[in-house]
């Protein structure tokens, strides 16, 4: 395959997981009620705000460049949705984790990011993404 064909496939990844995530949220809302759907959406939105805040801080302070690395916004955005699947859809958890590994390999192949960029971004953002997702899921069961 050509570089452009691989790039096209790579560029389809995030929109595809977003679509699957939206379908999953609608299904959750229909099965468990609007409150569950809204809190799952809140977890995704909080996670997105966090990864963009990290990007802003990195652009301002040049943290990743100080280590000769690059903050992988591609990875961070995808991890927001992977975090959703880890927390809310146990049946898809394994498939989605496998898919992000494939996506990482494609990004490396296309020279979008290095393995170090992807791993360092994942180590920094994934704990907070999962915290946002789990807290929002737990909030559904508490009375406000």
Explain what you see.
The protein is mostly helical and 144 residues long. It contains 6 helices and no strands. Helix 1 packs antiparallel against helix 2 (34-61). It is globular, with a radius of gyration of 16 Å. The N and C termini lie far apart (54 Å). The mean pLDDT is 92.
Write the layout of secondary structure elements.
Blueprint: H1 3-32, H2 34-61, H3 63-66, H4 73-88, H5 90-109, H6 115-140
Helix pairs in contact: 1-2, 1-4, 2-4, 2-6, 4-5, 4-6
Provide a brief overview of the structure:
It is built from six helices and no strands.
The computed structural class is mainly alpha
End-to-end C-alpha gap? 54 Å
Round the Cα radius of gyration to an integer and report it.
Answer: 16 Å
Strand content: under 5%
- Spans where pLDDT lies below 50 across 5 or more residues: none
Number of strands: 0
Which sheet architecture does the biggest sheet show?
none
* Helix and strand element order: HHHHHH
């Amino acid at each position: 395959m050509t570089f452009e064909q691989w790039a096209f496939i790579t560029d389809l990844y995030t929109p595809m997981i977003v679509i699957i995530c939206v379908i999953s949220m609608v299904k959750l809302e229909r099965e468990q009620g609007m409150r569950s759907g809204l809190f799952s959406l809140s977890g995704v939105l909080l996670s997105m705000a966090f990864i963009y805040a990290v990007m802003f801080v990195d652009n301002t302070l040049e943290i990743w460049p100080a280590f000769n690395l690059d903050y992988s916004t591609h990875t961070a955005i995808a991890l927001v949705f992977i975090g959703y699947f880890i927390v809310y859809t146990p049946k898809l958890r394994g498939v989605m984790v496998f898919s992000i590994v494939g996506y990482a390999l494609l990004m490396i192949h296309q020279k979008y990011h290095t393995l170090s960029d992807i791993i360092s971004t994942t180590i920094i953002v994934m704990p907070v993404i999962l915290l946002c997702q789990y807290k929002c899921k737990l909030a559904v069961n508490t009375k406000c």
